[in-house]
Amino acid sequence: MLVIRRRAGQSILIGDEIEIEVVEVGPTRVKLGIHAPRGVTVLRKEIVLTREENRLAARSLSSGHDFADTVAEIVTEIRNSKGGAGGPISR
Amino acid sequence: MLELTTKYFGTVTYQEESVVLFPGGLPGFPDEKRFLLVEQALNKPIVFLQSLARFELCFLTLPVRGLQPDYELSIAAEDLRVLGLDEERQPAIGTEVACLAILSLSEDRPPTANLLSPVVINWKTRTAVQAVQIDSGYSHQHPLFAEEAVEACS
User: Per the CB 3.0–4.6 Å rule, which of A17, B87, B103, B130 could disulfide with B77?
Assistant: First the structure.
């Protein structure tokens, strides 16, 4: 990974058509401005992670196994994890 | 009463008032806006999120507090606006909103829950959004079951 330090107002150029400008630097956040051509999608990483995870989640029931079996299995595991003084599932 | 044909529950009857509307769809499913929450005594505590438009699209979810009892929301003002909620504060889970984590079951890895981006449903308006938690440290692949601790030899 290339690591570059920038101050507010400074920019990074990626390829010929993408520019990332550090607009403002705050105590816990950075405000970035992004210039990119129309065809290039710019998304927060968490959205991409969520999108990919949703697509995986949508396939959870189509593994080829019977729906009732798949769900029963996970429900049993969940119920077995709970209980005792521990109560609900927690890390 | 309306009827919906689903792949996993057969024909389901419901009322229009039970439909949950995601104005922006969900990430990865931008056109899927109308869902039903399906709960079965047999499969508690799972809450199924069944698409009205695609009969085979059904998410498994769990209430976040069952996974993390101290889970609190920290979502963007924009998401609060979509939900029709006060943008100045986070809503109360349970009373004002339902908060569900979508589960991923796969042959390749242990089951996980998306605690980074919960589904938040405004009970009153039946509007919902899958909102990314800000600064939470929660994972989009939170293991459902604790791994067995491996003790080092002493």
Answer: B87
ipTM: 0.90
C-alpha closest to that of B45 among B60, B29, B23, B25: B60
Taking 3-state DSSP, the helix, strand and coil percentages for chain B, each rounded to the nearest 5, stand at 10, 35, 55
Rounded CA-CA distance A15/A28 in Å is 28
Q: Tell me the two tokens of residue A12.
A: 């990074």
Compute the distance between CA of residue B144 and CA of residue B149 in angstroms, rounded to an integer: 15
CA distance A80 to A75: 8
Q: B144 CB near a chain A CB, below 8 Å?
A: yes
Task: Name every residue whose Cβ is closer than 8 Å to that of residue A32 and which is 6 or more positions away in sequence.
Answer: A20, A21, A22, A23
Whole-prediction pTM: 0.88
Distance CA B132, CA B24 (A): 14
Of B43, B60, B130, the CB nearest to A50: B130
With 0-12 / 13-18 / 19 or more C-beta atoms within 10 angstroms meaning exposed / middle / buried, residue B43 is middle
Show residues of chain A in contact with B45, CB under 8 Å.
75, 78
Residues, chain A, total?
91
